[in-house]
Design goal:
The structure holds 2 protein chains of 2 kinds. Chain A contains 4 helices and no strands. Chain A is mostly helical. In chain A, helix 1 packs antiparallel against helix 4. The radius of gyration of chain A is 14 Å and the shape is globular. Chain B is α+β, with helices and mostly antiparallel strands. Chain B has 9 helices and 9 strands. In chain B, the strands form 2 sheets. In chain B, strands 1, 4, 5, 6, 7, 8 and 9 form a 7-stranded mixed beta sheet that branches. In chain B, helix 3 crosses helix 4 and helix 3 crosses helix 7. The relative contact order of chain B is 0.22. The chains are: A mainly alpha, B alpha+beta. The interface between A and B is medium-sized, with 24 and 30 residues.
Chain lengths: 108, 296
């Protein structure tokens, strides 16, 4: 069943198709996460993929929970206790990396 | 079953006269025993501390976690606030527990997180407990959700009868904790964190309401705002956040409240001090009172 972002969990796919799918997933996750953070914060123009969300005081507890739920709804990736590490939420790029890793692990 | 309060109430002779007056006169039609103190805490030291800790902490640390820790330490330093009114008597709590109100996205519900023995815990431990609870609550695996849903299914008249009956008995007798839903009675304080940027400026929070019997203290941090101060004959902008503390005149007075608020401001202004000043003894009684009882 396709998720909110239009990405279904892969079943059995050819290696080439899988590589293509992974590439698409990566750009998709990054763009969607960026769009979500920008939509839920003030001064959204200043936020980029490399913005330090903690140092810039963008990430508060409400936005963090919003992000966790967004990731869960879009890609079916459940973040658990030890995933709440600052290193995973420092930039959108780092969070996207975590989501991609988990998504690929789940679908493997 | 657990008894959250010490078995003996405070002696009448130990209760200040004006607290006693409120204790006996407050109620429907009587004087309002609510005291509210609104002050400001410096925002930058809190954020600097959180940022530097977030560089190495195993778990994300936020303002609400720091606020919970500061309230726990302030309660340990001012045990006169770690008490509640039952009937016309004041009972000390056995432990220093803090209740934090959180709201989850996509759910029209407020979730209460109870953190026990706060003054003995480090900031990462507090943060971990709060995140864990919030996730469990969001994923509907927190058992208290089932209890709430059960209560919600009850007919209105029956629900009202249960609530009123329970409140009536709870206000007369020091009851034990018997279930999940009433475990929040273990704490004398409710903490609210509204410090996020998205909230409007705050001047006071729930300033004039009859205090809840079990939650005699409410601590609320408002959203940060800029303030211009004079420093070295120059105007200088600083960031502050309003801190609103609502207390119960039946258990404290304005002077005690001012000391409690000062302690809160000091702890939030120098958060690193809390890591070194963790009290080992979490006694809920004032040393003077305990000494008096021993000698008696």
């Amino acid at each position: 069943m396709p998720s909110k972002s239009g990405w279904a969990k892969p079943t059995t796919v050819a290696p080439d198709a899988r590589i293509q799918q992974e590439k698409q997933l990566k750009s998709n996750v990054r763009q969607e996460l960026l769009g979500f953070v920008q939509a839920n914060t003030m001064n959204s123009e200043a936020i980029t993929m490399q913005t330090d969300l903690i140092e810039q005081e963008v990430l508060d507890s409400l936005l963090l929970m919003d992000l966790v739920l967004f990731v869960e709804q879009c890609w079916g990736v459940e973040l658990i206790g030890h995933d709440f590490s600052p290193s995973h939420f420092r930039t959108i790029g780092e969070l996207a990396q975590l989501v991609e890793q988990r998504w690929l692990k789940q679908s493997a | 079953m657990k008894w959250p309060l010490l078995p003996k109430p405070e002696r009448k002779s130990d209760t200040p006269f004006f607290n006693l007056l409120y204790l006996h006169a407050a109620g429907q039609g009587g004087p309002d025993p609510t005291i509210v103190w609104v002050s400001e805490v410096p925002w930058d030291p809190m954020q600097e501390y959180l940022k530097s800790n977030n560089r190495s902490a195993p778990v994300m640390l936020g303002t609400s976690h720091l606020l919970v820790q500061a309230v726990g330490h302030a309660l340990a330093l001012h045990p006169e606030f770690n008490r509640r009114v039952v009937g016309r008597r004041v009972y000390p709590f056995k432990e220093v527990n803090v209740c934090l109100a959180t709201r989850l996205p996509n759910q029209n519900e407020v979730n209460l997180v109870l953190i026990k023995d706060v003054e003995q815990k480090g900031l990462p431990e507090i943060a971990e407990a709060i995140w864990h609870n919030q996730l469990a609550y969001r994923r509907q695996i927190e058992p208290v959700i089932r209890d709430r849903n059960r209560l919600r299914r009850l007919p209105g008249w029956f629900f009202r009868t249960i609530i009123r009956g329970f409140q009536g008995v709870e206000n007369l007798f020091p009851l034990p904790i018997v279930g999940r839903i009433d475990r929040y009675r273990c704490s004398p304080v409710l903490v609210n964190d509204f410090s996020q940027k998205r909230f409007p400026n705050m001047r006071a929070y729930k300033p004039s309401r009859m205090p809840d019997e079990s939650k005699s203290l409410s601590v609320t941090l408002g959203p940060r705002e800029e303030k211009i101060v004079w420093h070295d004959d120059q105007p200088k902008p600083i960031q502050v956040a309003p801190l609103c503390v609502r207390a119960d005149h039946r258990i404290c007075d304005g002077f005690q409240l001012s000391r409690f608020v000062s302690t809160m401001i000091r702890l939030l202004g120098e958060p690193e001090a809390m890591e070194f000043q963790r009290p080992k003894n979490s006694s809920c009684e004032e040393p003077t009172q305990a000494a008096r009882r021993k000698s008696a």
